[in-house]
Amino acid sequence: MTNQDFIIREIKPEDNEQLAIVVREVILEMGAPKTGTAYEDKATDKMFENFDKPTSFYFVVEHKNKIVGGAGIAQLDNFKGTTCELQKMYFLPIARGKGLGSKLIKTCLEKAKTLGFENCYLETMPYMEAARALYKKNGFANLDKPMGNTGHYSCNVWMIKEL
């Protein structure tokens, strides 16, 4: 299976149901709590609508007409300035280890720059080691405390990257 089998494209309304399943499956697979994470976010079921704003966008990874991952960018909640947040980045096992994570991050950050963002923030969890390694490889640095207020109190690893 090559990267050509995977398509990165902007989200469509009909992707909502499949994408919500991907997000929740990965959260359960990682053993993450359901509370204080995207698992219980109402927005998880309406990703297209949630990211359909002038300062937001979401890309999905499609494989054989099925959604197998995705990531988005939105203005960081409760934070003034030109900082966006990399949000809801999840990949099913079939999409991992193929360089798609870096490709998706690069795609998101390039588009974020065109919207005028200067920094990108993200939150994750300590035991999501592969994700943390991916973010580090793509230039994200650890922070000592959170920025803004995302409501994801179970995510206690905070990172930032200058665009």
Account of the 3D structure:
- The chain is an alpha+beta fold.
- It has one domain: Gcn5-related N-acetyltransferase (GNAT) (Aminopeptidase, 3-Layer(aba) Sandwich), CATH 3.40.630.
- It contains 4 helices and 7 strands.
- Strands 1-2-3-4-5-7-6 form a 7-stranded mixed β-sheet.
- Strand 3 and strand 4 form a beta hairpin.
- It is globular and about 40 Å long.
- The model has no long low-confidence stretch (mean pLDDT 92).
Query: Per DSSP, what share of the residues sits in E-state strands of 2 or more residues?
Result: 25-35%
What is the averaged pLDDT score? 92
Question: In CATH, what is the homologous superfamily?
Answer: Gcn5-related N-acetyltransferase (GNAT)
**Strand runs, count:** 7
Report how far apart the termini are.
32 Å
The CATH topology assignment is: Aminopeptidase
Task: Report helical residue fraction.
Answer: 25-40%
What's the structural blueprint in terms of helices and strands?
Blueprint: E1 6-10, H1 16-29, H2 47-51, E2 57-63, E3 66-75, E4 83-91, H3 100-114, E5 119-124, H4 129-137, E6 141-143, E7 157-162
Parallel strand pairs: 4-5
Antiparallel strand pairs: 1-2, 2-3, 3-4, 5-7, 6-7
Brief account:
The chain is of the alpha+beta class. Helix content is 26%, strand content 28%.
Q: Can you give keywords for this protein?
A:
single chain, 163 residues, alpha+beta, Aminopeptidase, seven-stranded mixed beta sheet
